[in-house]
Amino acid sequence: MIQHKxxxxxxxxxxxCLMSINGAAMAAxxxxxxxxxxxxxxxxxxxxEPASLxxxxxxxxxxxxxxxxxxxxxxxxxxxxxxEPRLAASWENKDNTVWTFHLxxxxxxxxxxxxxxxxxxxxxxxxxxxxxxxxxxxxxGNMHVANALDIAQGKKDPAALGVKALDDSTxxxxxxxxxxxxLAMLAHPSLVPLDKVLIGxxxxxxxxxxxxxxxxxxxxxxxxxxxxIVAVRNPHYWDDRHTVIDKVTYLPISSESADVNRYxxxxxxxVYSVPVNQFAQLxxxxxxxxxxxxxxxxxxxxxxxxxxxxNDPRVRRALNMALDKDIIAQKVMGQGQRAAWxxxxxxxxxxxxxxxxxxxxxxxxRITEAKKLLAEAGFGPEHPLTLNLLYNxxxxxxxxxxAASSMWKKNLGVEAKLQNQEWKTMLDTMHTGNFDVVRxxxxxxxxxxxxxxxxxxxxxxxxxxxxxxxxxxxxMRNAAKATSLDLEERGKFYQQAENLLGxxxxxxxxxxxxxxxxxxxxxGGFAPDNRGNYYTKDMFIKKH
Length: 544
Description:
Layout: H1 13-22, E1 41-45, H2 61-70, E2 75-77, E3 83-85, E4 88-94, E5 98-103, H3 117-128, H4 139-142, H5 148-152, E6 163-167, E7 170-174, H6 182-186, H7 196-202, E8 218-224, E9 228-233, E10 247-251, H8 256-264, H9 279-286, E11 290-303, H10 313-321, H11 325-333, E12 338-339, E13 347-348, E14 351-352, H12 363-376, E15 386-392, H13 395-412, E16 415-421, H14 423-431, E17 437-443, H15 450-453, H16 470-481, H17 487-504, E18 507-518, E19 523-524, E20 540-541
Parallel strand pairs: 1-10, 15-16, 15-17
Antiparallel strand pairs: 2-3, 4-5, 5-7, 6-7, 8-9, 9-10, 11-17, 11-18, 12-18, 13-14, 19-20
């Protein structure tokens, strides 16, 4: 996902049965003695206007924050990394390749009509269909669901997808090989079921409030573009009895300063992101209201590898070498971010991944080598490299772009022209390939390096760099074949993949994230997981 425990998730049928007996999903856990406010309403900034609320049309946390509040999937990943039942009450598998899921009895859409296994089948067929053009159309293929990859590439009909409804409440999923992170991947927001009848009736207009039907704790009540989205409690939600907040308002404020100002004025309960230039002062003055948490996410600049001269790996590697990432992480950001030399994470899913050798060189040595690489590629003082650096409108992205362009100018004589676009426009620009270098970031969809690395595979629907290397693809295929218990084997292939990215540099990793928020003291249950997710249904408002 554009924009997390130390072991891969493995499960036994016994554990599944125990979870099914316990029944309840993650929900608001109100401590004994807590006095709740009479008015259970929350206002949270979401950072930008969402591109859509159709789970098959989106790719970032801006949209998935909303979708995760409004839709349930078959399962979810708890904050401790374990898998819990959601729309599925239980499941079993045969040889880790044929999985059978049993839906909860009586689950319904927000209009009261039944959710069936056929809804899941139709939704997943829609996700992989080339006609949908989903950014996540490769996702089921990455899970090794039978025929998913061929369907996404237009080679087979969506009806051939290895998912079928055995009856209204039983779903069977067939994989071509065991997938170590299958259950964790299954929790992704792109895999929530959608209402076939609704979408057939209203087409792309199904996400309007007057038509909207969902399966989660909240349903869409109001959508005023570029102003607010309002969701209210869904009384038909299967676990509504554990929901506390009745109404949530999401604001699309892209200015971090405006976000903080409205927080101080009492208009917002949760700030989306704390401005780097105010962080130190807010840390002193806001005390416990300032929250900082690590996140499995990497900030990077990605190249259009099909556009000259960025189709030359020497140019890309030179630009990577010449950045002083410690300065960007520690000085420009300074909230706990770490300089990044791998695309995924140094520690993820129980494996450790190492940076390329040049990452440990002194900056002066890296610059010298970078100049040699540029000279070999035909660039130097008499013929300087120029590029356009695109980022989405956001104060922090501008600060980082200014720092990076200054480093490239000082160290290599490279002229970087800065461009900014609104979020939705930038995504369109990126997917159409109309860029030189673009700011990007990826949040792990699940706790495994493949979540970051799969998007650089040849033909992946999220591979907007257009990078293609058969050796990289082979390393990722081999990693996927490793069993969930063989961390050493899987880590070996992930390291091979990262080594190739370090040589080819389709994207420049800049830093590994932390998440920063301001949260009002009366908001209970705010606890982001290590991917930065937090859900309205887990929260409550204390009397104040």
